[in-house]
Amino acid sequence: MYKKILSLLLTLYKKPKAVALAGTVLTMLFALAIPFIQFDNDIKNFLAHDHPHRLANERLDSEFKSSEIIIIGVESDDAFSKETIDYIKWLQGEIDKLNYSFPKENIAHELQISPEEADLVITAINQNELQGSDYLQSLLTNPERMNSELFWDMEFSKKIAKKIKKSSIKKLMNLYRLPVAEIKSVTNTDFIRGEKDKFIVEKLIDPEKLDDKSLADLKAKVKSWELYDKLLYSSDDRLTALSVRMNPIDINLRQKFNIAVEKIITDNPKGNLKVYMAGEPVITDRVSSSMGDDLQRLLPFALIVMLIILFVIFRHYEGVLFPMIAMIFSVIWAVGTMSILGIPMSMVSISVPTVLTAVASAYGIHFMTHYFMSDSSDRYGACSNSIKSSGLAIVMAALTTVVGFGSLVTSDMTHIKNYGIITAIGVFYSLVITITPRILNPKAEIHNTFILLL
User: Fold this and answer.
1) Residue 229 backbone phi and psi in degrees, to 5
2) What is the pLDDT of residue 438?
3) Among 34, 48, 41, 54, which residue's Cα sits nearest to residue 409?
4) Distance in angstroms (rounded) separating the CA atoms of residues 308 and 320
């Protein structure tokens, strides 16, 4: 088997232009797919959709409301001051407005229609949601039915049908959902008191009537019930909180919503008030955004370090260029494959490019070491001698690494399983790229300038 592979490689070494063209075309195709890769750090997605523990958690969320809560803390000298309560009331109103405008903006963007037209689509979905997604699919992709049942003009009906066919009703339903299920703060929390033989349920404070007496009553009510301690206010009376309970929505939409809320806060500073955002959704989304930043910083840094090391070892442009191309191409192919297969970049798979950089450089260094040590005076002979002397070791090292990472497919954790799959594929790509060097021209003269490790 190995002799057949070796014979094929020796044939490819005689056709560097064809190999270079094929490698370049493949790299461009994989590179075009990279911008479409998704980032996913939702802790729930570590488990498969049919995993018993995930199903149990989803049932709990459906029965007892979602556990995904954004906490917005407002710090001031006095959490019960008029300035603080006014700000809480204003912020709660802004988030509520965003909650109801969010679906319209998303549907308008997805279908490339105006906000007013998106309102019509939302009304249609709202009126027919109970009929099920199949019914909505048949309705919103049939211009005649939209014209007769929804009373839309035929031109608009045809436009919507065409747009929805390009998208999907499932995606549309996800965009239609309100991101926020409930907003709770000191301005709308219930207070229960006893009066004779009755229980009276009222709000802690009327946010429309803020005066010294109502603020003093608010503080007295809150302090009278330990349940509110460290829930609505801090022990030192400097911090109060606003909790935003999220509906189960797509993680990318949730991240977009969090960014919008943060923009509202940062664009409207209020006196000496300090505002903080926390909670599992915020942390998860921050990790997702920081992952992209880390990838942009760490990968170039790793490549620069490898460039320096290769130059120190070989002191020759070929000894630097070939392993670098093998590293870069294997990373592009692997990440492009992730995007094509729909595998999201997670906090686990973010290390794939760095791992492939190390692996591909090792294979390239082995190949180039034997290439420079060859006694052949032409590059074809040097490549042939290199692959004959180091090829089997490189192939066996790569295949054992592929098997090692591939064994992770047995994991119950989806992200770890995906990491094993894509890293194994990436290592195989680096092997293919390493043993088919396309930048070494077989007709040119070779310069034996191999330098021992310093």
Assistant:
1) -65, 125
2) 56
3) 48
4) 9
Tokens of 119: 């309102």
Phi, then psi, of 447 in degrees rounded to 5: -115, 110
Residue 194, burial from CB neighbour count under 10 angstroms (0-12, 13-18, 19+): exposed
pLDDT tens for each residue of 197-241 = 788 888 888 877 888 888 888 888 888 888 888 778 888 888 998
Q: What is the DSSP string of 300-318?
A: HHHHHHHHHHHHHHH-SHH
**Band of pLDDT at residue 442, cut at 50, 70 and 90:** very low
pLDDT digits (tens, 9 = 90+) for 277-305: 998 888 877 877 777 777 777 778 888 88
Q: CA of 221: how far to CAs of 153, 204, 210, 247, 445, in Å?
A: 57, 7, 15, 30, 89
Type of residue numbered 330: S
Judging by beta carbons within 10 Å of its beta carbon (0-12, 13-18, 19+), is residue 383 exposed, middle or buried?
Answer: buried
User: What residue type is 112 in one-letter code?
Assistant: Q
Mode of pairing for the β-strands spanning 198-203 and 239-246:
unpaired
User: What is the phi/psi pair of residue 235, to 5°?
Assistant: -65, -30
At which residue do the structure tokens 């390239």 appear? 364
How big is the chain by its Cα radius of gyration, in Å?
31
- CA separation for the pair 132, 259 (Å, rounded): 31
Nearest 5°: phi and psi at 41? -125, 25
Distance CA 114, CA 157 (A): 14
Dihedral sign, Cα of residue 435, residue 440, residue 444, residue 449: negative
Tell me the C-alpha distance between 203 and 291, whole Å: 43
CA distance linking residue 269 with residue 300, whole number of Å: 37
Average pLDDT over residues 148-154: 90
Q: What is the largest CA-CA distance in the chain?
A: 106
| 2-44+284-435 CATH fold | Multidrug efflux transporter AcrB transmembrane fold (1.20.1640)
Say which residues have a Cβ less than 8 Å from residue 102's Cβ, sequence separation at least 6: 178, 179, 253, 257, 260
Residue corresponding to tokens 């093998």: 326
> Which tokens sit at 314?
């070989």
- Residue ranges of the domains in the chain? 2-44+284-435
User: How many residues are recorded in the chain?
Assistant: 454
Write down the H helix ranges in 112-199: 115-128, 133-140, 143-149, 154-166, 169-176
Element (H, E) at 271: none
Which residues, 6+ apart, have CB-to-CB distance to 9 below 8 Å? 387, 391, 435, 436
User: pTM value?
Assistant: 0.71
Spatial neighbors of 152 by CB under 8 A, at least 6 apart, are 120, 146, 160
Identify the CA nearest to 319 among candidates 304, 306, 331. 306
